UniProtKB/TrEMBL annotation:
<dbReference type="InterPro" id="IPR000182">
    <property type="entry name" value="GNAT_dom"/>
</dbReference>
<protein>
    <submittedName>
        <fullName>N-acetyltransferase</fullName>
    </submittedName>
</protein>
<dbReference type="GO" id="GO:0016747">
    <property type="term" value="F:acyltransferase activity, transferring groups other than amino-acyl groups"/>
</dbReference>
<feature type="domain" description="N-acetyltransferase">
    <location>
        <begin position="9"/>
        <end position="178"/>
    </location>
</feature>
<dbReference type="InterPro" id="IPR016181">
    <property type="entry name" value="Acyl_CoA_acyltransferase"/>
</dbReference>
<keyword id="KW-0808">Transferase</keyword>
<dbReference type="Pfam" id="PF13302">
    <property type="entry name" value="Acetyltransf_3"/>
</dbReference>
Amino acid sequence: MVDIKGRKIELIENTAESLDELYFWRFEEKQQEAKKWNGPYIPEEYISKEQHREKWLDDEAIAAGVPTSLTIRAGEKVIGYVGAYWVDENTNWLETGIVIYDKDYWNGGYGREAYTLWIDFLFESTDLHRLGMSTWSGNERMMKVAEKIGMKEEARIRKARMVEGQYFDAIKMGMLREEWEK
């Protein structure tokens, strides 16, 4: 069972309970502020609570003891999740991400701590050569978090994402194992 404790948050394995709390943030919470920043250019199909739970609990692990996602908990409250998926297993390359749904936990270092713990866990628990993340140029907070933990901008695809009728650049950032080890 994975349980990674930080100063402000902990990363815990997904349970039916924590997934139901994430479901609230993804589909039931009225304001949906996180969706304005987390891939707002990707339509999210509505699924039932049961489908949501099944999908996440049935996800294959990245490696033995390394789940594809962990729930972020602050105190006893579920506030988001971290995740990863293989871009290319042959070259040991993962894509990663983080979402803090509860805006009361934005701009307080919770996301940075969670993402740092997740990246450290992935490098420590696997033979990863590189990992990365993708966002859009309007999500400046995510780019700053990635940069602060050591990622470098590797690609900028001009005007490739549309948000609220306006074009933004697609951003790819990444980190190599040797950079993480420093």
